[in-house]
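Worked problem 6 (solution included).
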Amino acid sequence: MGNIVSIHSFRGGTGKSNLTANLAAQVAMAGKRVGIIDTDIQSPGIHVLFGLNEAKMGHTLNEYLRSECDILDVAYPVGEHGSELPGLKQLAGKQLWLVPSSIKSSEISRVLRDGYDVARLNEGMQRLFKEMKLDYLFIDTHPGLNEETLLSIAVSDILMIILRPDQQDFQGTSVTVDIARGLDVPNLFLIINKVLTRYNFAQIREQVEKTYQAEVAGVLPLTEDVADMASADIFSLRYPDHPWSRSLREIAKTIMETA
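Solution. The predicted structure is:
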């Protein structure tokens, strides 16, 4: 049995979807069977990093949650679809699937108005894992704490909490860490993202580990290069020698080395 990896942040804007896409891609490049599910249904976005738009998606997680299709019908085989983008092109033939959420305004409004059955989401994740024989299932969660994110945390084998060196992030992360420990998450790691390059990374790592009594899996620099790509490709594959990409691969290594 493989691992469910939830990528979470207390606030938006931490780079969660970008990190999820890059980590999943790196693990797939290592020869693993990898799934990604976008449970940020209110504000989906990870599909953009894999070159998808509404026309290419086919079925979406929204349809599955309304019992209009099977969860396996939603899984989009990224590795089977070619791309001319330098990063995505490297995923050809890799065993990587994405379960996207709809980006239609009507679908998002419907979720906000009616909600959805969280138990069915859990059933879908478990079936996806079992039927597709995944080594890793990455969950791109909705920021903050609500019913679906608590479910994602509770079923996780590995929880990666992303924070920036910001006081609001520090306080929110403290709440999330406490809840994760209360839910007995087996493996909890922190990722510090968007750190100014003039800062002392080792000092920040030490401070955060001391504050939360949790291991920091990686410290990633704030860089215009990542921002300039504007989610149009998988940065760590396109620019493997970039400092951001090297730090990202260390986090992916931690995930694959965690039992």
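Discussion: The longest strand covers residues 187-195.
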